[in-house]
Amino acid sequence: MRSISDTIAHLRDLAASANLTGQQSVPLMSIDDFGPNPGALRGYLHIPHDLPAHAPLVVVLHGCTQTAASYDHGSGWSTLADRFGFALLFPEQQRANNPNLCFNWFSPEDTRRGGGEVESIREMVVAAVGRYELDPVFVTGLSAGGAMTSAMLACHPEIFAGGAIIAGLPFGTAHSVPEALERMRGHGHDRASLSDRVRAAAAHRGSWPTVSIWHGTADTTVNPINAGLIVDQWRGLHRAGEPDIRERIDGRSRRAWHDRAGRVVIEEYMVTGMGHGTPLAADGNEACGVPGPHMLGAGISSTYRIAAAWGIVPAVAPSRPVNTAATVPQRQAPARSSGFDPTTTINDALRAAGLMKP
């Protein structure tokens, strides 16, 4: 039998998950005719109804073992896009390319300008931007998707206004699977060449994208040292020194760096005690997404905060509108088998508290 504290915690988690699940799930539209596809990737779009021209586009890159749809469901990007009016592009890995569905962020063939998976993603972006008149463009991803975000920012800085790397790695530090595993553990990085690797990826003379970095301090899959290395890679490009801001937001550590014009060009969130995954908020006006594998309830919504850093949602989340449809009686759907029976759990709690006879 569960202890009363375990039962209450389980009920709280279930309620939060049920509340978030009610905000999802949005079908994605396949994009097949986007042009050359040297990386053999799939692509999906989410275009909110009545989206105006020149709305922003966010490119979202899933992590290993995930799909475009599962990462969208977990992270809540479509919920946010529908609420505030921007488009989404979801490149998706195929098992024929990587048996674990990881983007091949460590492969030189897939992470160079004009080739491999980087080029496939660029072709998808160009097609979506042209078809729906979208601007500006941003990119984000988790884990292998975060490392591929680093590659997209390095290889095509002229396309992206900003990027967000969640539990990822800096660009250009691994060139094989063994090296990738070492870098994930935090070993073998050449700190001195970090910024030069990005400069060498593209002949870029314009301004560099802004970068938001998120990592859990208890991540045992991608060592948190990688977050600091990403900061160092982009500090060199933005010519930023020590952080201008050190603060706590919802109990999480945030550092930020401004450029000479006063614009925040780098920010880093370190989520104390969190493992490997995307940080989610279970409640509040910023809440979106659904907890699950590598989608972690952390008391802060990385999805919302990233979008706010890019200026595509309000800096302070407005109150949610009242869902009047919830007051209309509806036929209940059959309960899904999840291994958790709410009635049994509640009865267990009452028995543990001495409020029900065994």
Short description:
By secondary structure, this protein is of the alpha/beta class. The protein is built from 10 helices and 12 strands.
The gyration radius over C-alpha positions equals 21 Å
What count of structural domains? Answer: 1
Outline:
globular
Give the CATH superfamily: Alpha/Beta hydrolase fold, catalytic domain
What is the element string, with H for helices and E for strands?
A: HEEEHHEHEHEHHEHEEEEEHH
Poorly predicted runs of 5 or more residues: 1-24, 322-358
CATH fold label: Rossmann fold
Going by CATH, the architecture would be 3-Layer(aba) Sandwich
CATH class: Alpha Beta
Number of strands: 12
> What is the terminal-to-terminal distance?
11 Å
Main beta sheet strand tally, sense and closure: 10 strands, mixed
Write up this protein:
By secondary structure, this protein is of the alpha/beta class. It has one domain (26-321): Rossmann fold. The chain is built from ten helices and twelve strands. The chain has helices spanning 4-21, 68-75, 77-84, 116-132, 144-155, 177-184, 194-201, 225-238, 302-309, 342-352, and strands at 29-30, 42-46, 57-61, 87-92, 137-142, 162-166, 210-216, 245-249, 252-258, 264-271, 278-280, 295-297. The strands form two sheets. The chain has a ten-stranded mixed sheet with strand order 1-2-4-3-5-6-7-10-9-8, with helices on both faces. Strands 11-12 form a two-stranded parallel ribbon. A hairpin with a 2-residue loop joins strand 8 and strand 9 (252-258). Helix 1 packs antiparallel against helix 10, helix 5 packs across helix 7 and helix 7 packs across helix 8 (225-238). The longest helix is centred in the first third of the chain and has 18 residues, at 4-21.
